[in-house]
Amino acid sequence: MNRGTKARDADHICFGLDRATDEHSLQLFLQLFSQKQLLQTLIPRLNGQEITTLVDQLSLLLRKHLQEKEYHELFLNDPDHHH
């Protein structure tokens, strides 16, 4: 994705209109948030508590909304995981 595409994607982020728009906006937001250069800039600036809080919140969402098999397949990219 080039820089112009990223800016156009950001233009489509809007929350509060309806569920479909919120879901699409969240997907775009998280894709922008997870860009390597942004993370390499942001993460060293986070304090220990901010790191812990972010990991705890994301882990809570994964545990709440994914079954173990989905967690391994979708998050860990481990389709061969067995209990």
Structure description:
By secondary structure, the protein is mainly α. Helix content is 67%, strand content 0%.
Helices and strands, with pairings:
Blueprint: H1 3-10, H2 19-33, H3 36-42, H4 48-65, H5 68-75
Taking the sheet with the most strands, its summary is: none
Helicity, in percent? 55-70%
What's the total helix number?
Answer: 5
Q: How confident overall, as mean pLDDT?
A: 91
Question: How many strand units?
Answer: 0
Overall geometry comes to globular
Radius of gyration: 16 Å
Elements, N to C (H/E): HHHHH
Whole-number tally of structural domains: 2
Q: Which structural class should the secondary elements be placed in?
A: mainly alpha
Keywords for this entry:
83 residues; mainly alpha; 5 helices; 0% strand; globular
